[in-house]
Amino acid sequence: MAVPYPVTGLGILNSLASAAGLEVTRGIRYQEGPRGLLDIYAPKGVSGAPMVVFFYGGAWESGERADYRFAAVALAKRGFAVAVPDYRVYPQARYPDFLIDGAKAVRWARRNAEEFGGDPGLLFLTGHSAGAYIAVMLALDTRWLDAGSLEALAGVVGLAGPYDFLPLHGRVLNEIFAPAGDLASAQPITYARANAAPLLLLSGVTDKTVTPGNSRRLAARIRGLGGDAETRFYPRASHVLILGAFNPLLRPIAPVFRHTASFIAARASIFRPKPDSPHFFRTTPLA
């Protein structure tokens, strides 16, 4: 008998994530090519919701949008419209291809937000690991997003992201970022600025894959410039479990999902504070 998800950690999390009450639209094309598709998750009948673009990780080498259904379902059940795009990865792609793709996905989400119940003027980026790199880089380095998308950007949540990771270790990582030439130009911390969208940077204390110093250093640099960057560190969350904790069964490990959802809801309220506004939305209670 066929099973709907592979018997892996992600497969188990996905099998436990019910999409009841959500409108799920899969395989929407945002650019050409086999990895130019995205999925949308949104509460049925919602309008004016924060539009969240979620970038998955995979060391810029792997990842599929369907594998992160559980994360998108969790966010959508909180009252957000969520886009999960695929993007090009190594060896077919190298820096900055994944940033170019990410920017296209964000622009698409902003242009089409209303069709899926989202507010095009209330945009959030989030991601895990390499996906957090993409989300934060798009928010800080103004080369990638158009002015309208940057203006609509209300906040960014990075989970276990590499933001200041020189020197590079390993042949593949060096090949991925070789096109940058000056490797500092590929580091999010290089583009820290005071007027960027507020950041929430989340890390596991014992994460050996992407050490929490990445979050500490970027947040300190932005705060030193007068910007808005918050950090949270979780003693029990590994590099993988920091995202796995989006699933209700794993939330006791660390309040990662609560902090993520609360940040988005709070920033959205600041952007659209009036209940009589056509952009006002009400989030659902946290599970």
Structure report:
The protein has a single domain (9-271), classed as Alpha/Beta hydrolase fold, catalytic domain (Rossmann fold), CATH 3.40.50. Helices cover 31% and strands 20% of the residues. The chain has 9 helices and 8 strands. It has an 8-stranded mixed beta sheet with strand order 1-2-4-3-5-6-7-8, sandwiched between helices.
Topology of this structure?
Blueprint: H1 9-15, E1 22-29, E2 37-43, E3 49-55, H2 69-77, E4 81-85, H3 97-112, E5 118-128, H4 130-140, H5 147-152, E6 153-159, H6 171-177, E7 199-204, H7 213-224, E8 229-234, H8 241-244, H9 256-271
Parallel strand pairs: 3-4, 3-5, 5-6, 6-7, 7-8
Antiparallel strand pairs: 1-2, 2-4
Helix pairs in contact: 3-4
List key phrases describing it.
single chain, 287 residues, alpha/beta, Rossmann fold, 8-stranded mixed beta sheet
Helix content: 25-40%
**Shape type:** globular
The main sheet orders its strands as 1-2-4-3-5-6-7-8
Stretches where pLDDT is under 50 for at least 5 consecutive residues are 1-7, 275-281
CATH level 1 class label: Alpha Beta
Please report the distance between the alpha carbons of the first and last residues. 33 Å
How many beta-strand runs? Answer: 8
Number of alpha- plus pi-helical segments:
9
Beta-strand level of the residues, as a percent range? 15-25%
Q: Summarize model confidence as the mean pLDDT.
A: 92
CATH topological fold name: Rossmann fold
SSE topology string: HEEEHEHEHHEHEHEHH
Q: Provide the number of structural domains.
A: 1
Report the C-alpha radius of gyration, rounded: 18 Å
Q: Mind summarizing the main beta sheet?
A: 8 strands, mixed
The assigned structural class equals: alpha/beta
